[in-house]
Amino acid sequence: MDMIQNLFSLKGKTALVTGARTGIGQAISVGLASAGAHVLLLGHRDNLDETKAKIDEAGGICETVLVDLGEVPQIREKIKPVLEKHSIDILVNNAGIIYREPAVDYDEQEWMRVIDVNLNAVFILSQEIGRGMVERGSGKIINIASLLSFQGGVFVPAYTASKHAVAGLTKSLANEWARYGVQVNAIAPGYIETNNTEAIRNDNKRQQSILERIPAGRWGRPDDMVGAALFLASKASDYVNGHVLVVDGGWMAR
Ligand code: NAP
């Protein structure tokens, strides 16, 4: 039991999770807090009460940080006071948005917004928070990638481009920072029941055809991501670098 505690406990660690209000970010925040981490819940509107209540219920500790990750030029300034107050051991770059439109009509502003939140903000937060990790000689960065880090998808060119880039950035930062004791890895979730997939779940034909390809025979739930996140956030993954861990009920194996 002691060995397991030693490998997976996050007692004394501070984690920052972006997009912590809902879905995968909420589940990972509760999971990290349950493992003992003090969790900084990053959202862009002051409405993280549901996540806070779940962490309270689990006996964990958290606080809220408000930063709009779509306002890229302001991120460094907004995160500065957080870094003055906390030394962050675990960064989960989870916040992400999707915009669907056929490529020939794809709105340029929406393209920019998706790339800003899903990629540019991920780099800036990794740089600002990773700097301290490199100086201290330890840290964990977990990026939330996607099956569209490997596949093309339909009607979501900005999302696909951003998620391919997130996988590349994960490997790039891992190569630079592994020698400093900082592990940078990613989780690529399969099809998960969250706001992100509401539109395709409401399209009965699409929902069914996706389901038919999932060997596990069901869509994923946000909680399905927690085990992988705990592994990548803890000592258990100290020799895992630049890996994109697919958690998809077998979709990619099909
Ligand atoms: P979600 O419930 O829509 O979560 C996205 C989170 O990001 C929300 O909490 C949202 O906050 C936050 N966010 C959006 N724009 C933001 C901004 N400008 N600044 C700060 N936070 C912002 O969907 P999810 O599925 O859990 O998504 C989490 C991650 O998983 C995303 O990176 C997504 O691409 C990835 N992913 C999801 C699936 C899936 O099947 N669901 C599959 C692969 C990858 P508000 O709700 O307050 O706007």
From TrEMBL:
It holds the Pfam family adh_short_C2. SUPFAM superfamilies: NAD(P)-binding Rossmann-fold domains (SSF51735). Its EC number is 1.1.1.125. Keywords: Oxidoreductase. InterPro entries: 2-deoxy-D-gluc_3_DH (IPR011286), NAD(P)-bd_dom_sf (IPR036291), Sc_DH/Rdtase_CS (IPR020904), SDR_fam (IPR002347). It is an enzyme of class 1 (oxidoreductase). GO terms for biological process: bile acid metabolic process. Signal peptide: none annotated. GO terms for molecular function: 2-deoxy-D-gluconate 3-dehydrogenase activity; NAD binding. It comes from the Bacteria. Belongs to the short-chain dehydrogenases/reductases (SDR) family. This is 2-deoxy-D-gluconate 3-dehydrogenase. It comes from Brevibacillus borstelensis AK1.
